[in-house]
Amino acid sequence: MDTTKSFFLPSEGSTFAPDVDALFHFVLWVSVAFFAVIMVMTIIFVIKYRRRGAAPVLTPGFHHHTTLELGWIFIPLVLVGIVFVWGFKGFMALNVVPKDAMEIKVSAQKWFWSFTYPDGFNTIDTLVVPAGKPVRLLMSSQDVIHSFYVPDFRMKRDVLPNRYSIAWFEAPNPGDHHLFCAEYCGKGHSEMHGRVRVLGEREYSEWVEKSAFSGEGMSLEEYGSHLFASKACITCHKLDGSAGTGPALPGAFGTQVQLTGGSTVLMDENYIRESILSPQAKVVAGFQPVMPTFQGLLKAHEIDALVAYIKSLQKPKPSGN
Hints:
Layout: H1 17-48, H2 66-95, E1 102-109, E2 112-116, E3 122-124, E4 126-130, E5 135-141, E6 146-150, E7 155-159, E8 165-169, E9 175-181, E10 193-199, H3 201-211, H4 220-230, E11 256-258, E12 264-266, H5 269-277, H6 300-312
Helix pairs in contact: 1-2, 4-6, 5-6
């Protein structure tokens, strides 16, 4: 991971981060220079033209100073022109996607990110990309406005419902980078974070091969445990028996569940499957209908594995003294 950073900015993790940082520092130090000049002149004028004696002395009148007036017109004009040209060049670099970029589909919903890769598999909250290769993100939201923000990449793009947003980046060095939602999207907004994992070419190829597997060599319960963590189910459904954003699952299979509206339902295989694919159909009493659908994000075998794992969860025993 590139550890280049300044006092004000995080590490430079993308190819266009150095240009963004250079423009930032240019504006910063020009502003500091003007501030210093103005403060020094203010102090000089306060001392030089302070009132002396009891009788007021008027400052001599001046009509104009041509050189000074031209200076404060052309110097700011030149500086603003430099910032405009420099900024426009950076804007074009951020918005013109290279033709050979690898495309990854990004789906945002309350409150996680899902990524679908060219090979068809997907990940939750962790975007894995190869180092030194441009990556095109085709992004959309399933519910409200979100914002895809990676500080190390100097990249932020709103993700909107009912339309696509496009962004791209190239990370030259392997490493991990924080990913945030930068648009308030509800109660779980602060929990909608993840990471961008940049791998070397060989490591990325190995990761693709490993990620494409469907739990070979694992029992359904073991594969379901793997999916429960990798698909971020554990974020809302705690395994210690306590209630989180969603109801506790250990020991719940085979029991009657109280629903919003007063009715009850048996927590069996069909109920678990329906809750994964259509979570708003039967909402547990005392909880908000905020669970997103995993329709299209999980294969049939993955749903079977999650059902088997949830069935196997035993209610935690209270700790003794």
